[in-house]
Amino acid sequence: MSYPRIDLEGATIAITGAARGIGLATARAFVEAGAYVALGDLDEALAVQAAAEIGDHAMGHALDVTDKASYAAFLEATAQWRGPLDVLVNNAGVMPNGPFLDQSDRIDQLTMDVNVYGVIHGMRLALPAMVERGYGHIVNVASLAGKFPLKGLAVYNASKYAVVGLTAATRLEMDATGVSVSAVLPSAVRTELSSGIDYGILPAVEPEDIAVAVVRTVKTRAAETAVPGYVGMMANASGLVPESVMRAFRKAAHDDAAITRVDDGVRRAYLDRIEKQ
After folding, report:
1. CA-CA distance, 179 to 54, in Å (whole number)?
2. What is the rounded CA–CA span in Å between residue 197 and residue 208?
């Protein structure tokens, strides 16, 4: 596919869940490339503080991705600050863990509202203007959990499978509009989201690694980018492996880590925060 070039020097970028973790690392990476970045986050004070620390190329703003009106206000504030949006990064997400039968309906609903509807809201709001202008790029930060299910993350898996499918389908619908839609699929990332879970031999990456991948998609417009790449290839190939073989691999890889290899003291701080939402 050929898309109109987006020059990051002076570009306008909006990132959700940008006050910490992957979102903040991605904001810094875009600013380093010369872009202007609006940091949206449920924690408005932290988003404003993070933007102030980054400098004049950043702005912090309140954002509840589960509320379409809040999302629209964030994008409107971004446009008033720096003009038309060039790139939207749907990064906000939550990852509760535990056995499926033990999780509450309220937290399941929150997971789907943030991880799926948050992405839908952003795309529905940002795409029309991009299509009208004939250029633009949307990056949805999904997860390799959207390709490879793990015990203890059933509803999170479901939400990320949804984002992977949503991204692929809308990418097809955007053919010939000049607008691209890409997914970035991280492995376990060393952020608060996965804090307290020991994933064993499964690779853990830094938020800066994901930031590099997100920024790179503006140039490559790749449909999917896994981080690290080899794990993505393994996830794509897993459906071709006999179930008995895959179960043996899963056991060796401790695919029940989100249930059995959890530091409850460390994990509790994160779970308490999202439960307050």
Report:
1. 28
2. 20
